[in-house]
Amino acid sequence: MNDAARPSPFDMGDEAAYARWRDRKLASRALSPTDLVVEVRDPRALTGPEMAEIVRRCRRDNMALYASRAADEDKEVPRRLGAQLGLATLDTNLLADEDGITRIAVTGTKAKAGFIPYTTHRIRWHTDGYYNPPSLRIRAMLLHCVRDAASGGDTALLDHELAFILLREDNPDHVRALLQPDALTIPARTDDEGVARPAAVGPVFSTDPESGDLHMRYTARTRSVAWKDDAATLAASARLLQILESDAGHVLRTRLSPGMGLVCNNVLHERSAFEDVPGRERLLYRARYVERIAGTAGAWTQLPQASGRSPRRSPFSSAQ
């Protein structure tokens, strides 16, 4: 039996499977950014133990942070790291560099075109590739820091499986609304040559048909976004944003310093505004992939029960 055929915690009709998974998830999840960190010598050539620790965290939390001294301006860092994690198919989106690895830095041309990642402004909560159609979903993403900002530029992270729990515990109807196939529409982008990107219509939450893994497609943007115009969907989107902005103990905040990076199964994240110093501008490399991180497919079926921690704690409580 493949993972998708097992009782699924993401099936709104299977309360027992959800309750078992929820308790294991809450008992074993990372409680601080330091729980996600793996020290590595060189992300271009991970050792066996380094790889195992990164994958272990990604199985548990859908993400890991690595810390290294590889702060040189070298796109081979994310490329080789991705390959070691089984990530092969880069998303060559409209703004990606020709090699598929994107430089995230303040860029006049892209900034003037309205692309917020290439400015010093805050990037609101989102998952990567939310404007892609469901057939081209982004399952994994890497960020590698070459230079940090003079101030600001912090990263906030939330495992999308925890977002699912938070919403379902609050009101299962919120999750049902966000599972609708037309819950979120990103209108087409046009330019002087016509349609640069067609409209993308799809759910916020969905499951992989083979592994059963939960996928999330989301943006907190208010422009160029159209939520399904019904009371349930609008209430669900408002509650999700409230959860993300409340930061009641479930959001992990960190600052990527040179040589550090994030590897994840496309979790929710945001970036704070920042200030640059002339001659030492903030620079990160970003890589988006069609695949999930190797060894994490179906991880929801094998979550450990962490010893010494209560498996049933309110997900809205900040007390640990």
Notable traits:
Double-stranded beta-helix; alpha+beta; 320 residues; four-stranded antiparallel β-sheet; six-stranded mixed β-sheet; 19 strands
Describe the secondary-structure layout.
Elements: H1 15-28, E1 37-39, H2 48-61, E2 63-67, H3 76-84, E3 102-104, H4 108-112, E4 123-126, E5 140-147, E6 151-152, E7 155-158, H5 160-170, H6 172-178, E8 184-186, E9 189-191, E10 194-197, E11 200-202, E12 205-207, E13 214-216, E14 226-227, H7 231-246, E15 252-254, E16 260-264, E17 268-271, E18 274-275, E19 283-289
Parallel strand pairs: 1-2
Antiparallel strand pairs: 2-16, 3-19, 4-17, 5-16, 5-19, 6-18, 7-15, 7-17, 8-11, 8-14, 9-10, 12-13
CATH homologous superfamily title: Clavaminate synthase-like
What is the CATH level 1 assignment? Alpha Beta
Q: In terms of structural class, how would the helical and strand content be classed?
A: alpha+beta
Cα-atom radius of gyration: 19 Å
CATH architecture: 4-Layer Sandwich
Main sheet: strand order: 1-2-16-5-19-3
**How many DSSP helices?**
7
Low-confidence stretches: none
At CATH level 3, the topology is Double-stranded beta-helix
